[in-house]
Request: fold
Amino acid sequence: MSFSFFPATTLLAVLLLTPPMASAQATTDQQITTMLQARKLGSIEITQLMKRLSEGQKDQLLREQAIIDGILLVSTDPSSLSPDDRQRLWNATKVIDSIIAQDRSVADEQLVCRQERRIGSQLAKRNCRTRAQLEREREDARRALDNQQNQSRR
Reply:
């Protein structure tokens, strides 16, 4: 059995430089608390929210906030952002709002944008709708198709 010096030193360095879980958890909680304070939540609301958030939700909050921060580094003026960046900004904000509110209806307000062509046209137009609007349109289309099929059977 041969022993290599390089992997052993690399492993030692990783172990020494990796922060303990408790301090990593404290850092995450501090980042989330700061983010929630910026959203004008009171200290009691923040304390209650922090108690009921799972680790996965905390990680998702930080990921979504990182998306927002990255977009706003480019420009703080939303009108100067590209349509894709505006959509990403809107969606990240809605995800954060839904986690804070613990309400699924807020997540339905996320925008979904698609390039759609009208029948008979080669030009595509960007259409943006919320998830709830898309679901309503699907249900309306299903009902219309069912009605048409039922009428043709008569």
User: Anything to note?
Assistant: Residues 1-22 have pLDDT under 50 and may be disordered. Residues 38 and 95 are 16 Å apart (CA to CA).
